[in-house]
Each structure stands twice: as structure tokens, then as C-alpha cells.
Amino acid sequence: DGGITQSPKYLFRKEGQNVTLSCEQNLNHDAMYWYRQDPGQGLRLIYYSQIVNDFQKGDIAEGYSVSREKKESFPLTVTSAQKNPTAFYLCASSDAGGSSYNEQFFGPGTRLTVL
Amino acid sequence: AQKVTQAQTEISVVEKEDVTLDCVYETRDTTYYLFWYKQPPSGELVFLIRRNSFDEQNEISGRYSWNFQKSTSSFNFTITASQVVDSAVYFCALRYNYGQNFVFGPGTRLSVLP
Questions:
Q1: Helix (H, G, I), strand (E, B) or coil at B71
Q2: What is the maximum alpha-carbon separation in chain B?
């Protein structure tokens, strides 16, 4: 089945540790996105990538890093510099735009808790 | 600036009532798309509908209907005869800039009480 997988579903981290969240898609989409959602809040864009080996900062990129070495994969690292990392993280993908304006497809999310 | 506003933060209705969720958008682009997503308690966003800027026809899908009005920059979503399973957070979104950018509204939390 085509879709987006995120792992793990729940993640616990000690303060001061870096942690990497996985996002994989088999939809052959060029664009991928990371969003953060805090309880009772909307989605905030962290990073996005329109093509392999290229990515741009979103609205709240500080304390996060990404890589896009393969079309299918867009891992997000939450670094120790992120002051308040406890949140729900959603990965999404879509076509790259241009003549297409299709929807984003979302993964099931990873809930990160810093202890 | 590109922006999506959902003025209703939370709505509570009793089962079988009709409910309308409001969405107002701002964009300078003439070509853009609007979307609605549902986020149930499990957390994953579920796509509901897509509408392009050149198609102002209203759409009905079962108990769901959408009203797109460019004159008021609105894309409202109505659930008829609501059910408890409709309880979720609903997001309106805009895709613009030749499709390169998405912006989401803050969401409306709908609670349907039995």
C-alpha cells in the first residue's frame, strides 16, 4: 500500500539528547514536510524539501535539522538546542507543485516526550 | 500575505444537529487550491476535499458539503446530521505560489455529543 510511515510512534528522550524521527514515503512524491503540533494547537512548519539534496527552513526551524539524501526519506533530528521539544510531529508529502496542486498526504505522527 | 483563518476554535453540538465550520483565506495568487482535513483523536490528518480557485461549484459528499465563495474568500464546510464519529479537529488549508507552499488554518475542534 502506498503511504507515509513514521517511526517510532512514541519516543521518550532525556534532556540534552539529540533524537531522530524517521519519515518514509512510497508515493513517489518530490516534496516532503515536517510539522510540529502542540496540544490544542495547529500545525507549524519546521522544514520542507522540494527535491532531493535540497531543503528550506519553515517557520520554527531553530533546534531542528533535516536531510534529504533519498527521495523516499526525510528524517528530522531534534537537537538539544530545541528548548521545548515535547510535541506531536507530523510528516507529509506531496507532488512538487508547478502544474499540480494536489493534497498533502500525512503520516501517523510521532509523539515525542522529553523527560 | 497568505493566510488561513478559522475563527471558531471549538464547537459543540448535539448529535443530529447540522454544523458549519468556517474558513477564510487570503492570497494574492489567482491560481490556488483549498483543502479540508480531519484530525481524529488518533492524530493522523485525513484528507477530505480539494477545490481549485476556478471552480466555485458547491460540493456534496454524503453528509458533508462545501461552499466556496471567492467574493468573500471563504470555503466553509457543513456537516449535516452530525454524528459522534465526526468529533475531531478540522483544518482548512491553502496551497499557493505555483503549488510550492501550503498554509494551514489553526483548526476547529468539533465535539458532537450523544
A1: helix
A2: 44
Regions of chain B with pLDDT less than 70: none
Determine which helix (DSSP H) or strand (DSSP E) holds A56, and give its type and residue range: strand A54-57
State how far the Cα of B108 lies from the Cα of A105, in Å rounded to an integer.
20
CB contact under 8 Å between B102 and A109, yes or no, is no
Tell me what pLDDT residue A100 has.
72
Distance from CA of B43 to the nearest CA of A (A): 7
Choose between A39 and A111: higher pLDDT.
A111
Cβ–Cβ < 8 Å for A64, A76: yes
Q: What residues contact A23, with CB distance under 8 A and at least 6 apart?
A: A4, A5, A6, A32, A34, A73, A74, A75, A76, A91, A107
Q: Calculate the average pLDDT of chain A.
A: 93
Which residues in chain B have their CB less than 8 angstroms from residue A27's CB? none
CB B49 within 8 A of CB B107: no
